[in-house]
């Protein structure tokens, strides 16, 4: 007798059948959606997963910045300096600096065959500090020293990224 379908329930609502345990009509409209407890459980699970994943990714940003600085020093800026040297016969002096790759230097030695700009914008490391350039280099006397001061912004510290060693 409890398996019989009723066309309408209380207050004219459609009823799909009876709940065999409670012997009350089951209303389709009340079974749709999620309860507050179900939503809270989902939010707690997402928060727990995020708490496990975020610490693993946090150290990667600093490692990525070091890799970017190494690529700039050993490839991007180095290529621009080599092109400058091919065109002009020498690297820019320490006084001319990396600005010589952006605009023709007016100080001696004035490049006779400057075909720049060799870089599109002033080279800045991932920590927003300008790259350091010395020519002739202290560590590379035949060419130049090019380095970043790293995260701490201080020279001759462990986090410096350089074109020697």
Describe this structure in words.
With 165 residues, this protein is of the alpha+beta class. It folds into two domains: 15-58; 61-162, Glycoprotein, Type 4 Pilin, CATH 3.30.700.10. Helix content is 32%, strand content 11%. It has two helices and five strands. The strands form two sheets. Strands 3-4-5 form a three-stranded antiparallel beta sheet, covered by helices on one side. A two-stranded antiparallel sheet has the order 1-2. Strand 1 (15-19) and strand 2 form a beta hairpin.
User: How helical, in percent, are the residues?
Assistant: 25-40%
Alpha plus pi helix count: 2
Arithmetic mean pLDDT: 85
CATH-level-4 superfamily name of the largest domain: Glycoprotein, Type 4 Pilin
The largest pleated sheet is described as:
3 strands, antiparallel
CATH fold assignment of the largest domain:
Glycoprotein, Type 4 Pilin
Count of β-strands: 5
Distance between the termini: 89 Å
Task: Estimate the global geometry from the Cα principal axes.
Answer: rod-shaped
Summed up, the domain count is 2
- Bin the strand percentage: 5-15%
| Biggest sheet: strand arrangement | 3-4-5
Task: Specify Rg, calculated over alpha carbons.
Answer: 34 Å
The CATH class of the largest domain: Alpha Beta
Which class of secondary structure composition applies to the elements? alpha+beta
The CATH architecture of the largest domain is 2-Layer Sandwich
Order of helices and strands: EEHHEEE
Assembly state of the chains shown: single chain
Q: Report the uncertain regions.
A: 4-9
């Amino acid at each position: 007798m409890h398996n019989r379908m009723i066309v309408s329930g209380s207050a004219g609502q459609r009823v799909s059948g009876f709940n065999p345990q409670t012997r009350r009509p089951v209303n389709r409209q009340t079974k749709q959606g999620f309860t507050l407890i179900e939503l809270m459980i989902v939010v707690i699970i997402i928060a727990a997963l995020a708490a496990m994943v975020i610490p693993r990714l946090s150290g990667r940003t600093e490692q990525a910045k070091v890799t970017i600085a190494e690529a700039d020093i050993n490839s991007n800026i180095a290529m621009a300096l080599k092109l400058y040297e091919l065109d002009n016969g020498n690297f820019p002096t320490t006084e001319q600096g990396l600005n010589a790759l952006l605009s023709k230097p007016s100080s001696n030695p004035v490049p006779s065959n400057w075909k720049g700009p060799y870089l599109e914008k002033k080279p800045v490391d991932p920590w927003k500090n300008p790259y350091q350039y010395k020519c002739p280099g202290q560590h590379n006397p035949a060419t130049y020293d090019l380095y970043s001061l790293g995260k701490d912004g201080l020279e001759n510290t462990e986090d410096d990224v350089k074109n020697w060693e």
